[in-house]
Amino acid sequence: MLVSSEQIIDALWETIWMVSFSLVFSVIIGLPLGILLVITRKGHLLENASIFNTLNGIVNIFRSVPFIILLVAIVPVTRFIVGTSIGTSATIVPLVFYAGPYIARLIENSLLEVDKGVIEAAEAMGATPGQIIFRFLLPEALSSLVLAMTIATVGLVGASAMAGAVGGGGLGDLAITYGYQRFDTATMYITLGILIIMVQALQSTGNILSKKIRRS
Predict the structure, then answer these.
(1) CB 3.0 to 4.6 Å from 144: which of 17, 33, 110, 156, for a disulfide?
(2) pTM for this one?
(3) Angle of helix 88-112 relative to helix 75-82, nearest 10 degrees?
């Protein structure tokens, strides 16, 4: 094996750092987008066809672009924001552009699962749209939202590994640089194993949290 254990650990921490920061910024973008996609749709709290169609179109555009293409397409934006298009910091930008709309769609689906009777009951009690969203809609969908965030996080892990193809850092970069380009199969299998363990741990944790919330 050409790489050391220190290199593998460093790459692991780079992946965790990229995924964590990307998830935070993606949620900051995706959560309000997802809420707006629900409340502005026909027959909902703040029905507005113009806003819904505009946001729906934007989300669809970004969701239709494969991450590896998006990664290259927004290089000028990445350079403008962080000053470079290579490395872990630079990878966060396309990850956010990729995951933000994805999370918005997941949140939209979770909120649409909430029984309309809950909203009708809240309206009957005189609750404002803001109160309905934050005191009724989001709490009722919390279990589903946890699963949605789990799916999004797993997707970010996969995308961060894909970013290694263009020098994005992390486990993906290690696997491609050493495992593929230098024919180091041991490194390839080690990084693959670590990624599988990460995904399994994330999915299991998300499933457990969702079940606990559903039972409470």
Answers:
(1) 110
(2) 0.89
(3) 110
Q: Angle at CA 153, nearest 5°, toward 158 and 159? A: 25
Neighbours of 70 (CB within 10 A): 16
Tell me whether residue 14 is exposed, middle or buried, using C-beta atoms within 10 angstroms of its C-beta: 0 to 12, 13 to 18, 19 or more: buried
In this predicted structure, the answer to whether residue 165 has a pLDDT above a threshold of 80 is: no
How long, in residues, is the chain? 216
Domains of the chain are 5-215 (1.10.3720.10)
CA 176 – CA 197 distance, rounded (Å):
19
- Scanning the structure block, which residue is given the tokens 């750092």? 17
Per DSSP, 66 falls in state -
pLDDT tens column, 179-216: 766 777 888 888 889 999 999 999 999 999 999 998 76
**Predicted confidence (pLDDT) per residue in 42-70, tens digit:** 888 889 999 999 999 999 999 898 888 88
Q: 82: phi > 0 → left, psi -120 to 50 → alpha, else beta; which?
A: alpha
DSSP per-residue string spanning 32-77: HHHHHHHHTSTTSTT--HHHHHHHHHHHHHHHHS-HHHHHHHTHHH
The whole-angstrom separation of Cα 72 and Cα 162 is: 12
| Residue 124: how many other CB atoms lie within 10 Å | 8
